[in-house]
TrEMBL record:
List of residues binding GTP: 25-32, 67-70, 78, 100
Primary enzyme class: transferase
UniProt keyword Nucleotidyltransferase present: yes
Gene Ontology molecular functions: adenosylcobinamide kinase activity; ATP binding; cobinamide phosphate guanylyltransferase activity; GTP binding
InterPro entries cross-referenced by the UniProt entry: CobU/CobP, P-loop_NTPase
Heme as UniProt keyword: no
Keyword entries, A-Z: ATP-binding, Cobalamin biosynthesis, GTP-binding, Kinase, Nucleotide-binding, Nucleotidyltransferase, Transferase
Pathway assignment: Cofactor biosynthesis; adenosylcobalamin biosynthesis; adenosylcobalamin from cob(II)yrinate a,c-diamide: step 6/7; Cofactor biosynthesis; adenosylcobalamin biosynthesis; adenosylcobalamin from cob(II)yrinate a,c-diamide: step 5/7
Protein's name according to its UniProt entry: Bifunctional adenosylcobalamin biosynthesis protein
Length: 195
């Protein structure tokens, strides 16, 4: 006879109240769906900030699928470059903002010949000042081969720096792989590792 408590009676980690959440992962990993679920579960006004510029039919269809997936109850703001301005203007204690995604935002900045480092600093300041929670979706792009051209290498490097900067200030960072969320931060939700 076992004296171990039933697994459903074991205490789990205490819930984390987060103002800034970074959700990262690869293509089609489930990161957007996971982020949408976080914002949908909040009892707040839901604001979706789309950074994508629909440049062809496939991208327009993708946007339509995402909109259908979210369903009703979301206010959508399309802003390809001024994320700091949108967050400053729209974040309230009664709202939750979902930014999808930082990767397309960075692409837009690079193609507009803007300064990604300066814009990331503006974004970081807006996130720190936001009265309501903000969930940001991004992509892990540096896990593959070294790109064969200077622009692609610059993008990969800028994306890595952007992700690190936002993860550093985020209360919670989650990597979604194969549809499974892996909490990277805060570290108390991860097992302690010792050697």
């Amino acid at each position: 006879m076992s004296h171990a408590p039933a697994s459903d009676s074991l205490p789990g980690p205490a819930p984390v109240v987060a103002r800034t959440v970074l959700v990262t992962g690869g293509a089609r990993s489930g990161k957007s769906l996971y982020a949408e679920g976080l914002v949908s579960a909040a009892q707040r006004e839901r604001i979706y900030v789309a950074t994508c510029t629909p440049f062809d039919d496939e991208m327009r269809q993708r946007i339509d699928r995402h909109r259908d997936q979210r369903g009703e109850g979301w206010r959508t703001i399309e802003e390809p470059r001024d994320l700091a301005g949108v967050i400053a203007a729209e974040s309230t204690a009664q709202s939750a903002i979902l930014v999808d995604c930082l990767t397309l935002w960075l692409s837009n900045l690079i193609f507009a010949e803007a300064d990604p480092e300066a814009e990331t600093a503006r974004l970081a300041e807006a996130l720190r000042a936001a009265p309501g929670p903000v969930v940001l979706v991004t992509n892990e792009v540096g896990s593959g081969i070294v790109p064969d051209n200077a622009l692609a290498r610059r993008f990969r490097d800028e994306q890595g720096r952007l992700n690190r900067r936002i993860a550093e200030l985020a209360d919670v960072a989650v990597l979604v792989a194969a549809g499974l969320p892996l909490v990277l931060k805060p570290s108390h939700l991860q097992p302690e590792i010792s050697l």
